[in-house]
Amino acid sequence: MQIPEIPNLIHYAIPFFTVTVILEVILSVKIKLHDYEFKDAGTSIVMGLGNVAIGLVTKGIALGFFYLLYNFYHVFEIPFAWWSWLILLFAEDLCYYWFHRTSHVSRFFWASHVVHHSSKNYNLSTALRQSWSGGFYTFIFWTPLILIGFHPVMVLVQMSVSLIYQYWIHTEYITKLPKWFEAVFNTPSHHRVHHATNPQYLDRNHAGIFIIWDRLFGTFEPEVEKPVYGLVTNIDTYNPIKIAFGEWYKMLGDFFTSKTSLVNRFKYLTKPPGWKHDGTSILSTDLRRDWEESKNAEL
Asked: Who has greater pLDDT, 144 or 52?
């Protein structure tokens, strides 16, 4: 199979990211809709730059693993053709949905994904607040595409396309888009819900490009009340090291120091964030259930 030379799309997108963040800052100050928090934005940008730098290593690891798997076994020989890119657009997005959903219900994956949710602000700089550790292991969610027969290069390129698409939806300046677009695609409105800590919004709208997966698998929630951004328990720090590895430190601390069985210790890795072996857990599902009960009581 002839493999075309494809550039690193993320690197080419960096100038666009830079210009649009600057424009958003100017717009925020000019309209005075809110005070732009430069320190928070600066932290997000540092996290993004770190992610790009570390990505030089993690993308090599992912590509090497994908090639090893691809050369070992794949069902079909899928070419670099327009129709295969179209199929991959949806197939990759479905893999992203399950990666994203799992990252909210398994603490091992949340330990890296929490970085993206750690800002109490929602703007374009928030999109750049990316993990420094996730790239080392989260690529396993895309292995079905390799086994089906999509070339490793195609998969990595489409993963980059998905990430670039999700950049523009991190804004409050776009309210609602046409109904047909909101019905099919992930939008600023849908993604604001995902970043919110309001009980009814927790662990909802995991879409990458297409919101259809959330509608199909029962995790869709429309934006109604104003979102409150951040974490259920905010970390309140601008230190990139603490943001990048704070949850890893807490999770491993629970694993090694909890006075409980080995099985329960491993549950600190696999169970949702907030799980405790002593039964005092307050999970996002509990918060949502309480909200639903209070709404039903009002009716």
From this structure: 144
Q: Taking a C-beta distance cutoff of 8 angstroms, is the pair 173, 28 a contact?
A: no
- pTM, whole model, 2 decimals? 0.91
Map tokens 């890795």 to a residue. Answer: 269
Q: Which residues contact 39 (CB under 8 A, 6 or more apart)?
A: 238
| pLDDT of residue 60 exceeding 90 | yes
Q: Region 42-61: what's the mean pLDDT?
A: 93
Q: Cα–Cα distance between 187 and 207 in angstroms, integer?
A: 9
Distance (Å, rounded) from C-alpha 213 to C-alpha 218? 8
Q: For the chain, count helices (H), then strands (E).
A: 13, 0
What letters, b where the CB count within 10 A reaches 16 and e where it falls short, cover 166-175?
A: bbbbbbbeee
| Tokens of residue 44, six digits | 């997000």
Tokens of 237: 């720090």
What pLDDT is recorded for position 12? 59
